Amino acid sequence: MSSKLWGGRFSVTTDKAVEKFSSSIDFDSALYKEDIKGSIAHSKMLSECGIISREDAKKIEQGLLKIEKRIESGDFLHDDSLEDIHMHIESYLTEEIGDAARKLHTARSRNDQVGLDIRLYLKTVINEVVEGLFYLRKNFYEKALSNIDTILPGYTHMQRAQPVSFAHHMLAYYEMFTRDASRFFDCLKRFDENPLGSAALAGTPHKIDRKRTTELLSFSTYTKNSMDAVSDRDFVIEFLSCASICMMHLSRISEELILWSTSEFSFVTISDGFTTGSSIMPQKKNPDIPELVRGKTGRVYGSLVAILTLMKSLPMAYNRDMQEDKPPLFDGAKTLLSCIDIYNRMLPEIKINKDRMLEATKSGFLNATDMADYLVEKNVAFRLAHEITGKAVALALDKGCELENLSLDDLRTISDVFDDDIYSYLDIEAVVDKRKSLGGTSRENIKNELKSIAELLDEEQKNFNY
Ligand code: ARG
Question: Is 389 within 8 Å of 425 (Cβ atoms)?
Protein backbone atom coordinates (compact mmCIF):
# COMPACT_ATOMS: atom_id res chain seq x y z
CA MET A 1 0.00 0.00 0.00
CA SER A 2 1.19 3.48 -0.76
CA SER A 3 0.96 6.46 1.59
CA LYS A 4 1.47 8.94 -1.25
CA LEU A 5 -0.94 11.80 -1.90
CA TRP A 6 -1.60 10.16 -5.25
CA GLY A 7 -1.27 6.60 -3.94
CA GLY A 8 -4.92 5.40 -4.19
CA ARG A 9 -4.53 3.27 -7.31
CA PHE A 10 -1.10 1.83 -6.49
CA SER A 11 -0.59 -1.50 -4.77
CA VAL A 12 3.22 -1.54 -4.60
CA THR A 13 5.33 1.21 -3.06
CA THR A 14 7.61 3.25 -5.31
CA ASP A 15 11.18 2.09 -5.67
CA LYS A 16 13.51 4.28 -3.59
CA ALA A 17 15.73 4.87 -6.62
CA VAL A 18 12.71 6.11 -8.56
CA GLU A 19 11.80 8.48 -5.75
CA LYS A 20 15.29 9.90 -5.67
CA PHE A 21 15.49 10.15 -9.45
CA SER A 22 12.18 11.92 -9.89
CA SER A 23 12.26 14.20 -6.85
CA SER A 24 12.65 17.93 -7.51
CA ILE A 25 12.49 19.17 -3.92
CA ASP A 26 16.20 19.99 -3.78
CA PHE A 27 15.69 22.73 -6.35
CA ASP A 28 11.98 23.62 -6.42
CA SER A 29 11.90 24.38 -2.68
CA ALA A 30 12.97 27.83 -3.94
CA LEU A 31 9.31 28.28 -4.92
CA TYR A 32 7.90 27.87 -1.39
CA LYS A 33 6.81 31.49 -1.03
CA GLU A 34 5.00 31.54 -4.36
CA ASP A 35 3.41 28.17 -3.64
CA ILE A 36 2.03 29.34 -0.31
CA LYS A 37 0.78 32.61 -1.75
CA GLY A 38 -1.02 30.73 -4.55
CA SER A 39 -2.56 28.24 -2.13
CA ILE A 40 -3.88 30.96 0.17
CA ALA A 41 -5.53 32.73 -2.77
CA HIS A 42 -6.95 29.43 -4.03
CA SER A 43 -8.49 28.39 -0.70
CA LYS A 44 -9.89 31.87 -0.14
CA MET A 45 -11.57 31.73 -3.53
CA LEU A 46 -12.86 28.18 -2.87
CA SER A 47 -14.52 29.34 0.34
CA GLU A 48 -15.99 32.46 -1.26
CA CYS A 49 -17.51 30.19 -3.92
CA GLY A 50 -18.95 27.90 -1.24
CA ILE A 51 -16.79 24.94 -2.31
CA ILE A 52 -15.06 24.67 1.08
CA SER A 53 -16.16 26.18 4.39
CA ARG A 54 -14.90 29.52 5.70
CA GLU A 55 -13.50 27.76 8.78
CA ASP A 56 -11.48 25.35 6.66
CA ALA A 57 -10.14 28.20 4.52
CA LYS A 58 -9.11 30.07 7.66
CA LYS A 59 -7.35 26.99 9.04
CA ILE A 60 -5.62 26.44 5.71
CA GLU A 61 -4.39 30.04 5.56
CA GLN A 62 -3.10 30.01 9.13
CA GLY A 63 -1.46 26.62 8.60
CA LEU A 64 0.26 27.79 5.42
CA LEU A 65 1.60 30.94 7.07
CA LYS A 66 2.97 28.81 9.88
CA ILE A 67 4.69 26.54 7.36
CA GLU A 68 6.20 29.60 5.65
CA LYS A 69 7.75 30.62 8.97
CA ARG A 70 8.96 27.06 9.60
CA ILE A 71 10.66 26.95 6.19
CA GLU A 72 12.26 30.34 6.79
CA SER A 73 13.63 29.25 10.15
CA GLY A 74 15.19 26.15 8.55
CA ASP A 75 12.66 23.72 10.04
CA PHE A 76 11.99 21.99 6.73
CA LEU A 77 13.11 18.48 5.83
CA HIS A 78 13.37 17.30 2.24
CA ASP A 79 11.77 13.93 1.68
CA ASP A 80 12.16 12.42 -1.77
CA SER A 81 8.98 10.42 -1.33
CA LEU A 82 7.08 13.71 -1.32
CA GLU A 83 8.54 14.61 -4.74
CA ASP A 84 8.24 18.36 -4.94
CA ILE A 85 7.55 21.58 -3.04
CA HIS A 86 3.81 21.37 -3.72
CA MET A 87 3.42 17.98 -2.04
CA HIS A 88 5.81 18.86 0.77
CA ILE A 89 3.72 21.86 1.71
CA GLU A 90 0.46 19.95 1.43
CA SER A 91 1.81 17.18 3.60
CA TYR A 92 3.15 19.65 6.20
CA LEU A 93 -0.26 21.31 6.15
CA THR A 94 -1.96 18.00 6.94
CA GLU A 95 0.41 17.60 9.89
CA GLU A 96 -0.42 21.12 11.07
CA ILE A 97 -4.21 21.31 10.64
CA GLY A 98 -5.43 17.77 9.94
CA ASP A 99 -8.34 16.97 7.63
CA ALA A 100 -9.06 20.52 6.41
CA ALA A 101 -5.75 20.35 4.51
CA ARG A 102 -7.16 17.61 2.30
CA LYS A 103 -9.63 20.08 0.80
CA LEU A 104 -7.03 22.55 -0.48
CA HIS A 105 -6.30 20.68 -3.69
CA THR A 106 -9.97 20.80 -4.83
CA ALA A 107 -10.25 22.12 -8.41
CA ARG A 108 -6.49 22.31 -8.76
CA SER A 109 -3.65 20.20 -10.09
CA ARG A 110 0.07 20.46 -9.60
CA ASN A 111 0.15 21.30 -13.29
CA ASP A 112 -1.59 24.66 -12.93
CA GLN A 113 0.02 25.09 -9.50
CA VAL A 114 3.59 24.88 -10.83
CA GLY A 115 2.69 27.11 -13.81
CA LEU A 116 1.44 29.67 -11.31
CA ASP A 117 4.47 29.39 -9.03
CA ILE A 118 6.97 29.97 -11.85
CA ARG A 119 5.02 32.96 -13.13
CA LEU A 120 4.93 34.51 -9.66
CA TYR A 121 8.64 33.78 -9.16
CA LEU A 122 9.56 35.38 -12.48
CA LYS A 123 7.54 38.48 -11.71
CA THR A 124 9.67 39.05 -8.62
CA VAL A 125 12.90 38.26 -10.46
CA ILE A 126 12.09 40.66 -13.31
CA ASN A 127 11.38 43.45 -10.86
CA GLU A 128 14.76 42.83 -9.23
CA VAL A 129 16.51 42.71 -12.60
CA VAL A 130 14.94 45.96 -13.76
CA GLU A 131 15.90 47.63 -10.49
CA GLY A 132 19.47 46.37 -10.86
CA LEU A 133 19.51 47.61 -14.43
CA PHE A 134 18.29 51.01 -13.25
CA TYR A 135 21.42 51.38 -11.08
CA LEU A 136 23.60 49.99 -13.83
CA ARG A 137 22.27 52.59 -16.28
CA LYS A 138 22.82 55.24 -13.63
CA ASN A 139 26.40 54.08 -13.19
CA PHE A 140 27.06 54.39 -16.92
CA TYR A 141 25.37 57.79 -16.88
CA GLU A 142 27.66 58.92 -14.06
CA LYS A 143 30.78 57.64 -15.78
CA ALA A 144 29.67 59.60 -18.86
CA LEU A 145 28.94 62.75 -16.88
CA SER A 146 32.47 62.88 -15.48
CA ASN A 147 34.10 62.11 -18.83
CA ILE A 148 32.55 64.49 -21.34
CA ASP A 149 36.00 65.93 -22.10
CA THR A 150 37.81 62.59 -22.07
CA ILE A 151 38.72 61.78 -25.64
CA LEU A 152 39.82 58.37 -26.84
CA PRO A 153 40.05 56.59 -30.17
CA GLY A 154 36.81 55.03 -31.36
CA TYR A 155 37.54 51.68 -33.03
CA THR A 156 36.15 49.71 -35.93
CA HIS A 157 37.65 46.27 -36.72
CA MET A 158 39.65 46.98 -33.53
CA GLN A 159 41.64 49.53 -35.49
CA ARG A 160 41.74 53.16 -34.43
CA ALA A 161 39.02 54.89 -36.46
CA GLN A 162 37.87 58.31 -35.24
CA PRO A 163 38.16 60.08 -31.89
CA VAL A 164 35.11 60.03 -29.63
CA SER A 165 34.27 61.31 -26.20
CA PHE A 166 34.49 58.59 -23.54
CA ALA A 167 31.07 59.81 -22.39
CA HIS A 168 29.69 58.79 -25.79
CA HIS A 169 31.23 55.35 -25.37
CA MET A 170 29.66 54.97 -21.90
CA LEU A 171 26.28 56.15 -23.14
CA ALA A 172 26.36 53.44 -25.81
CA TYR A 173 26.15 50.96 -22.91
CA TYR A 174 23.44 53.07 -21.29
CA GLU A 175 21.38 52.54 -24.46
CA MET A 176 21.95 48.77 -24.44
CA PHE A 177 20.89 48.35 -20.83
CA THR A 178 17.89 50.63 -21.32
CA ARG A 179 16.71 48.37 -24.16
CA ASP A 180 17.29 45.38 -21.88
CA ALA A 181 15.07 46.84 -19.16
CA SER A 182 12.28 47.49 -21.66
CA ARG A 183 12.65 43.93 -23.02
CA PHE A 184 12.19 42.48 -19.51
CA PHE A 185 9.10 44.63 -18.92
CA ASP A 186 7.69 43.54 -22.24
CA CYS A 187 8.29 39.89 -21.41
CA LEU A 188 6.52 40.36 -18.06
CA LYS A 189 3.53 42.02 -19.71
CA ARG A 190 2.95 38.97 -21.90
CA PHE A 191 2.97 36.36 -19.11
CA ASP A 192 1.05 38.44 -16.59
CA GLU A 193 -1.81 35.91 -16.76
CA ASN A 194 -3.17 33.69 -14.00
CA PRO A 195 -3.13 29.98 -14.97
CA LEU A 196 -4.76 28.80 -11.71
CA GLY A 197 -8.03 26.94 -12.32
CA SER A 198 -6.78 25.31 -15.52
CA ALA A 199 -6.35 22.26 -13.29
CA ALA A 200 -4.65 19.24 -14.90
CA LEU A 201 -5.29 20.35 -18.49
CA ALA A 202 -9.00 20.72 -19.19
CA GLY A 203 -10.36 22.99 -16.48
CA THR A 204 -12.64 21.85 -13.65
CA PRO A 205 -16.35 21.11 -13.17
CA HIS A 206 -16.28 22.94 -9.80
CA LYS A 207 -17.84 26.38 -9.86
CA ILE A 208 -14.65 28.29 -9.19
CA ASP A 209 -14.03 31.99 -9.78
CA ARG A 210 -10.81 32.43 -11.75
CA LYS A 211 -11.30 36.19 -11.90
CA ARG A 212 -11.14 36.29 -8.12
CA THR A 213 -7.77 34.48 -7.88
CA THR A 214 -6.52 36.69 -10.70
CA GLU A 215 -7.38 39.70 -8.55
CA LEU A 216 -6.04 38.17 -5.33
CA LEU A 217 -2.71 37.36 -6.98
CA SER A 218 -2.47 40.74 -8.80
CA PHE A 219 -2.35 39.34 -12.33
CA SER A 220 -3.67 41.62 -15.02
CA THR A 221 -5.79 38.82 -16.50
CA TYR A 222 -6.31 35.01 -16.56
CA THR A 223 -5.11 32.49 -19.17
CA LYS A 224 -7.70 31.71 -21.85
CA ASN A 225 -6.90 28.10 -22.71
CA SER A 226 -6.34 25.54 -19.98
CA MET A 227 -4.20 23.24 -22.14
CA ASP A 228 -1.90 26.07 -23.16
CA ALA A 229 -1.83 27.43 -19.60
CA VAL A 230 -0.38 24.24 -18.09
CA SER A 231 2.03 23.45 -20.92
CA ASP A 232 3.29 26.93 -21.77
CA ARG A 233 6.87 27.76 -20.87
CA ASP A 234 7.29 30.48 -23.53
CA PHE A 235 7.73 33.01 -20.77
CA VAL A 236 10.66 31.09 -19.29
CA ILE A 237 12.26 31.02 -22.74
CA GLU A 238 11.53 34.70 -23.28
CA PHE A 239 12.98 35.58 -19.90
CA LEU A 240 16.15 33.60 -20.56
CA SER A 241 16.48 35.13 -23.99
CA CYS A 242 16.19 38.63 -22.47
CA ALA A 243 18.74 37.50 -19.88
CA SER A 244 21.06 36.19 -22.60
CA ILE A 245 20.95 39.49 -24.50
CA CYS A 246 21.62 41.39 -21.30
CA MET A 247 24.54 39.07 -20.45
CA MET A 248 25.89 39.57 -23.99
CA HIS A 249 25.96 43.32 -23.27
CA LEU A 250 27.71 42.73 -19.94
CA SER A 251 30.16 40.47 -21.72
CA ARG A 252 30.96 43.17 -24.30
CA ILE A 253 31.80 45.79 -21.67
CA SER A 254 33.76 43.09 -19.80
CA GLU A 255 35.83 42.39 -22.89
CA GLU A 256 36.56 46.12 -23.23
CA LEU A 257 37.54 46.46 -19.57
CA ILE A 258 39.86 43.46 -19.84
CA LEU A 259 41.50 44.96 -22.92
CA TRP A 260 41.63 48.47 -21.50
CA SER A 261 43.32 47.29 -18.32
CA THR A 262 46.23 45.61 -20.17
CA SER A 263 49.58 47.43 -19.93
CA GLU A 264 49.37 47.83 -23.72
CA PHE A 265 46.21 49.96 -23.39
CA SER A 266 46.22 51.18 -19.77
CA PHE A 267 43.02 53.13 -20.48
CA VAL A 268 41.50 52.10 -17.14
CA THR A 269 42.62 50.88 -13.74
CA ILE A 270 40.27 48.59 -11.85
CA SER A 271 40.63 49.13 -8.10
CA ASP A 272 42.47 46.50 -6.03
CA GLY A 273 39.23 45.48 -4.34
CA PHE A 274 37.88 44.21 -7.64
CA THR A 275 40.96 42.47 -9.00
CA THR A 276 42.92 39.45 -7.85
CA GLY A 277 46.57 38.44 -7.76
CA SER A 278 48.36 35.43 -9.14
CA SER A 279 49.57 32.62 -6.88
CA ILE A 280 52.88 32.48 -8.72
CA MET A 281 53.53 35.86 -10.38
CA PRO A 282 53.82 38.54 -7.69
CA GLN A 283 53.43 41.46 -10.11
CA LYS A 284 50.06 40.32 -11.49
CA LYS A 285 46.76 42.11 -11.00
CA ASN A 286 44.05 40.29 -12.92
CA PRO A 287 40.64 41.55 -14.09
CA ASP A 288 38.84 38.44 -12.79
CA ILE A 289 35.46 40.09 -12.33
CA PRO A 290 34.96 41.09 -15.97
CA GLU A 291 36.47 37.74 -16.99
CA LEU A 292 33.99 35.84 -14.83
CA VAL A 293 31.07 37.88 -16.14
CA ARG A 294 32.23 37.14 -19.70
CA GLY A 295 32.44 33.45 -18.75
CA LYS A 296 29.07 33.35 -17.00
CA THR A 297 27.46 34.67 -20.19
CA GLY A 298 27.96 31.21 -21.68
CA ARG A 299 26.22 29.70 -18.68
CA VAL A 300 23.09 31.83 -19.23
CA TYR A 301 23.05 31.03 -22.97
CA GLY A 302 23.27 27.38 -21.89
CA SER A 303 20.12 27.78 -19.77
CA LEU A 304 18.25 29.27 -22.72
CA VAL A 305 19.27 26.44 -25.04
CA ALA A 306 18.43 23.85 -22.37
CA ILE A 307 14.82 25.03 -22.13
CA LEU A 308 14.37 25.51 -25.85
CA THR A 309 15.54 21.92 -26.28
CA LEU A 310 13.42 20.69 -23.38
CA MET A 311 10.24 22.11 -24.94
CA LYS A 312 10.79 21.42 -28.60
CA SER A 313 9.09 18.02 -28.93
CA LEU A 314 6.56 18.12 -26.14
CA PRO A 315 3.04 17.16 -27.16
CA MET A 316 0.10 18.78 -25.38
CA ALA A 317 -0.29 19.29 -22.47
CA TYR A 318 1.83 18.93 -19.29
CA ASN A 319 4.70 16.42 -19.48
CA ARG A 320 7.03 15.54 -16.62
CA ASP A 321 9.97 16.67 -18.76
CA MET A 322 8.89 20.17 -17.78
CA GLN A 323 10.09 19.66 -14.23
CA GLU A 324 13.56 20.11 -15.74
CA ASP A 325 12.76 23.75 -16.56
CA LYS A 326 13.62 24.88 -13.06
CA PRO A 327 17.38 24.32 -12.64
CA PRO A 328 18.29 26.30 -15.79
CA LEU A 329 15.72 28.97 -15.01
CA PHE A 330 16.90 29.46 -11.43
CA ASP A 331 20.55 29.33 -12.42
CA GLY A 332 20.03 31.79 -15.30
CA ALA A 333 18.13 34.22 -13.07
CA LYS A 334 20.65 34.01 -10.22
CA THR A 335 23.62 34.38 -12.53
CA LEU A 336 22.17 37.43 -14.25
CA LEU A 337 21.27 39.12 -10.95
CA SER A 338 24.72 38.47 -9.49
CA CYS A 339 26.48 39.85 -12.59
CA ILE A 340 24.39 43.04 -12.55
CA ASP A 341 25.06 43.41 -8.83
CA ILE A 342 28.84 42.99 -9.10
CA TYR A 343 28.95 45.46 -11.98
CA ASN A 344 27.08 48.02 -9.92
CA ARG A 345 29.73 47.64 -7.25
CA MET A 346 32.71 47.59 -9.60
CA LEU A 347 31.91 50.42 -12.04
CA PRO A 348 32.40 53.27 -9.55
CA GLU A 349 35.75 51.66 -8.65
CA ILE A 350 37.19 51.99 -12.13
CA LYS A 351 39.63 54.80 -12.71
CA ILE A 352 39.68 56.32 -16.19
CA ASN A 353 43.19 57.16 -17.39
CA LYS A 354 42.29 60.24 -19.40
CA ASP A 355 45.85 61.09 -20.50
CA ARG A 356 46.48 57.62 -21.89
CA MET A 357 43.24 57.76 -23.83
CA LEU A 358 44.06 61.16 -25.32
CA GLU A 359 47.59 60.08 -26.16
CA ALA A 360 46.21 57.18 -28.17
CA THR A 361 44.26 59.58 -30.38
CA LYS A 362 47.50 61.31 -31.39
CA SER A 363 48.71 58.61 -33.78
CA GLY A 364 46.95 56.54 -36.39
CA PHE A 365 45.50 59.36 -38.52
CA LEU A 366 42.21 59.52 -36.62
CA ASN A 367 41.54 62.88 -38.29
CA ALA A 368 41.87 61.60 -41.87
CA THR A 369 38.10 61.57 -42.48
CA ASP A 370 38.07 65.21 -41.41
CA MET A 371 40.67 66.11 -43.99
CA ALA A 372 38.42 64.53 -46.62
CA ASP A 373 35.37 66.34 -45.18
CA TYR A 374 37.35 69.62 -45.35
CA LEU A 375 37.95 69.06 -49.04
CA VAL A 376 34.25 68.24 -49.55
CA GLU A 377 33.37 71.59 -47.96
CA LYS A 378 35.67 73.13 -50.60
CA ASN A 379 33.56 71.48 -53.29
CA VAL A 380 35.73 68.47 -53.98
CA ALA A 381 33.64 65.33 -54.63
CA PHE A 382 33.91 62.90 -51.68
CA ARG A 383 35.51 60.07 -53.69
CA LEU A 384 38.26 62.43 -54.96
CA ALA A 385 38.67 63.94 -51.48
CA HIS A 386 39.12 60.39 -50.14
CA GLU A 387 41.88 59.77 -52.69
CA ILE A 388 43.69 63.06 -51.98
CA THR A 389 43.58 62.34 -48.23
CA GLY A 390 44.91 58.84 -48.88
CA LYS A 391 47.89 60.42 -50.60
CA ALA A 392 48.40 62.79 -47.67
CA VAL A 393 48.39 59.80 -45.29
CA ALA A 394 50.99 58.05 -47.48
CA LEU A 395 53.16 61.20 -47.43
CA ALA A 396 52.90 61.48 -43.63
CA LEU A 397 53.80 57.79 -43.27
CA ASP A 398 56.82 58.48 -45.49
CA LYS A 399 57.88 61.37 -43.33
CA GLY A 400 57.10 59.54 -40.10
CA CYS A 401 54.66 62.22 -38.91
CA GLU A 402 50.94 62.85 -38.45
CA LEU A 403 48.65 64.69 -40.90
CA GLU A 404 48.72 67.89 -38.83
CA ASN A 405 52.54 67.91 -39.01
CA LEU A 406 52.58 68.14 -42.82
CA SER A 407 53.33 71.69 -43.96
CA LEU A 408 50.98 73.56 -46.25
CA ASP A 409 53.61 73.22 -49.01
CA ASP A 410 53.64 69.46 -48.51
CA LEU A 411 49.86 69.35 -48.75
CA ARG A 412 49.79 71.54 -51.83
CA THR A 413 52.01 69.08 -53.68
CA ILE A 414 48.96 66.78 -53.46
CA SER A 415 46.13 69.29 -54.02
CA ASP A 416 45.99 73.08 -54.34
CA VAL A 417 42.61 73.13 -52.60
CA PHE A 418 44.42 72.99 -49.23
CA ASP A 419 44.67 76.26 -47.30
CA ASP A 420 45.79 77.46 -43.86
CA ASP A 421 42.37 76.67 -42.35
CA ILE A 422 42.96 72.92 -42.80
CA TYR A 423 44.79 72.74 -39.45
CA SER A 424 41.74 73.76 -37.44
CA TYR A 425 39.90 70.81 -39.02
CA LEU A 426 42.59 68.38 -37.89
CA ASP A 427 42.57 69.31 -34.20
CA ILE A 428 41.31 66.24 -32.25
CA GLU A 429 38.81 68.17 -30.09
CA ALA A 430 37.44 69.88 -33.18
CA VAL A 431 37.11 66.49 -34.86
CA VAL A 432 34.93 65.31 -31.97
CA ASP A 433 32.88 68.48 -31.69
CA LYS A 434 32.11 68.71 -35.41
CA ARG A 435 30.10 65.50 -35.21
CA LYS A 436 26.87 67.26 -34.38
CA SER A 437 24.58 65.04 -36.44
CA LEU A 438 21.83 63.64 -34.18
CA GLY A 439 23.32 60.85 -32.07
CA GLY A 440 26.89 61.90 -32.96
CA THR A 441 29.76 62.32 -30.49
CA SER A 442 30.00 66.16 -30.33
CA ARG A 443 30.24 67.36 -26.73
CA GLU A 444 27.25 69.60 -27.33
CA ASN A 445 25.15 66.56 -28.30
CA ILE A 446 26.42 64.60 -25.31
CA LYS A 447 25.52 67.39 -22.88
CA ASN A 448 21.98 67.52 -24.26
CA GLU A 449 21.70 63.77 -24.11
CA LEU A 450 22.95 63.67 -20.52
CA LYS A 451 20.32 66.23 -19.57
CA SER A 452 17.44 64.18 -20.93
CA ILE A 453 18.84 60.98 -19.41
CA ALA A 454 19.06 62.68 -15.99
CA GLU A 455 15.38 63.69 -16.24
CA LEU A 456 14.39 60.21 -17.32
CA LEU A 457 16.29 58.52 -14.48
CA ASP A 458 14.78 60.93 -11.96
CA GLU A 459 11.31 60.21 -13.23
CA GLU A 460 11.88 56.43 -13.12
CA GLN A 461 13.26 56.63 -9.60
CA LYS A 462 10.11 58.45 -8.48
CA ASN A 463 7.71 56.08 -10.25
CA PHE A 464 9.32 52.86 -9.11
CA ASN A 465 10.59 53.91 -5.68
CA TYR A 466 14.06 52.49 -6.30
N1 ARG B 1 7.23 18.88 -9.86
C2 ARG B 1 6.41 19.01 -11.04
C3 ARG B 1 7.06 20.02 -12.01
O4 ARG B 1 7.80 20.81 -11.59
C5 ARG B 1 5.05 19.50 -10.67
C6 ARG B 1 3.97 19.09 -11.60
C7 ARG B 1 3.83 17.61 -11.55
N8 ARG B 1 2.63 17.14 -12.13
C9 ARG B 1 2.42 15.85 -12.25
N10 ARG B 1 1.28 15.51 -12.70
N11 ARG B 1 3.32 14.96 -11.95
O12 ARG B 1 6.77 20.03 -13.18
Answer: no
